[in-house]
Amino acid sequence: MAAPRMNLKLDNAVVAFAVLTGEGRKGKKSENEYTLAVEVTKKQKRDILKQVNEFWEENKPKKAKKPKEDPEKWFSESQDNKGDFVFWASEIVSKSISLERAKGTTFGMKHFKDLGAGSVVDASYSLFLYDNSYGTGIGLRLSVVLLKEFVKHTGNSTLGGEKIDDDDEGGVATEDEMSEVISDFEEALEDKDFDDAEELLEELEDHADYKKFKKAFKKAKKNK
């Protein structure tokens, strides 16, 4: 059964920074990952968290009291005066994401890293519920970015004093990303889609419960 999902949208959001990491090819820690951070006000933050809480209350399992990870972690204090907070979200391109430009002009994903602070976008996100061996909580994914005003990125970006280099090739999966991989893996086993399950198992190689996942994969394949 597919995990519950909900769309979330921020119109006319001002970009704090955009980061592209990865090697652009399929495989563990190699796919392009797109991280977008936009400026939000205190009111916008309250509205987002209200929607997230309503989504949680409507879809959480009866046993669950609160999400494993606090959605507050999606926000950090703004270092500029364009907003009160910065709202983070990422996506791996092999899942589903698109970067579009208003008025139909072409602006492909290869230009994502050129989005500079001050660019204006309509950003769409996907909230999803996960309930697996990792835990129960809410994940956040970036889905569509509609570019309305373009400011080209130059140099490096900073957030909270941490330098984010253009050439940074970090590849460590976030907890939200890992939890969705586990959900997809368990769903693939249930559907007996072993090709997909084997590919997802590779992404779980560094997980503490990797041996358990590998054992479950072998058992399910043997009993197909």
Distinctive features:
OB fold (Dihydrolipoamide Acetyltransferase, E2P); two-stranded antiparallel ribbon; 224 residues; single chain; alpha+beta
What does this structure look like?
This protein has 224 residues and is an alpha+beta fold. The protein has a single domain (5-172), classed as OB fold (Dihydrolipoamide Acetyltransferase, E2P) (Beta Barrel), CATH 2.40.50. It is 25% helix and 33% strand. It is built from 4 helices and 9 strands, in the order E-E-H-E-E-E-E-E-E-E-H-H-H. It has a 7-stranded mixed β-sheet with strand order 3-4-2-1-6-7-5, with helices on one face. It has a two-stranded antiparallel sheet with strand order 8-9. A hairpin with a 7-residue loop joins strand 3 (75-77) and strand 4. The longest helix has 18 residues, at 42-59. 29% of the residues are buried.
Offer a concise description of the structure.
With 224 residues, this protein is an alpha+beta fold. Helix content is 25%, strand content 33%.
Strand order of the largest sheet: 3-4-2-1-6-7-5
Question: Largest beta sheet, briefly?
Answer: 7 strands, mixed
CATH hierarchy, class: Mainly Beta
Strand content: 25-35%
Number of beta-strand segments? 9
Topology:
Layout lengths: L4 E17 L11 E8 L1 H18 L15 E3 L7 E8 L5 E4 L18 E13 L2 E15 L7 E3 L2 E3 L10 H16 L3 H10 L6 H13 L2
Parallel strand pairs: 5-7
Antiparallel strand pairs: 1-2, 1-6, 2-4, 3-4, 6-7, 8-9
